[in-house]
Amino acid sequence: MNGIFSFFVVFLIVIGTRFACGDELIDEVVAVVNGEIITQRQLEQVIFLSGGNWEFEDIVEDFILYQEAEREGISVSSETVEKALVEIKADFSDAEFEQALAQGGLTVSEYQEWLRRKIVRDRLKHQKGGKIDKNIRIKDRETREFYLKLKKYLDGQDISETGVAQFYRSHKKNLANAGKIQIAQIIVKSKVTADLVLQQLKKGESLAALARK
Question: 195 with 37: CB under 8 angstroms?
Fold first, then answer.
């Protein structure tokens, strides 16, 4: 676990890529953490499930923790996830539960996946104990400054071409190992095509190459 979060921007590529079907926006990729995509939909879902208390930094931490758990071979059975889900739903009817999830843009299957990942992360935390808190804490002032500017950018407070260019110039050194900030819009004819594009991004396909296609 040493060093996996000592400077999280090394692992983070910020992408403002929108996947649209005609004039309808399907989703937007807001970041890629070690090759794993975080979409705007996922971001909003996690914020909803946290009661609005989480910020982008917390979500990136969770993605990194889950990736570390996978590297450690930590897994959870579907029976364990189902048991946890039954306990959570105990005071709700199926309709009430689905309605509550819908408020956060979640389906039951999406919630189950979130729950599975949470249990996996919790098992990692239990195994590693205090070592994780020490390793993922962002202490460096420069890193914190980068994060705050990154959050401002992601929140849309400065999404102009000039703003993006200035952000990149200011932190070019920090981003050297992570790739570069890319702004693009990919228009596709169907959700199926959008899903294919997402899969290609996950496999490491160049964003620029996909945009040209």
Answer: no
Instruction: Give the residue from 55, 26, 30, 199 showing the smallest Cα distance to 138.
Output: 55
Any domain includes 69: yes
Relative to beta strand 12-21, strand 182-188 is: parallel
Question: 0.90 exceeded by the pTM?
Answer: no
Total domains present in the chain: 1
Sheet containing strand 24-33, strands side by side: 36-39, 24-33, 12-21, 182-188
Domain annotation covers residue 188: yes
Catalogue the E-assigned strands of the chain.
12-21, 24-33, 36-39, 182-188
Which ranges of the chain have pLDDT less than 50?
Answer: 1-26, 133-134, 136-144, 147, 159, 174-189, 207-208, 211
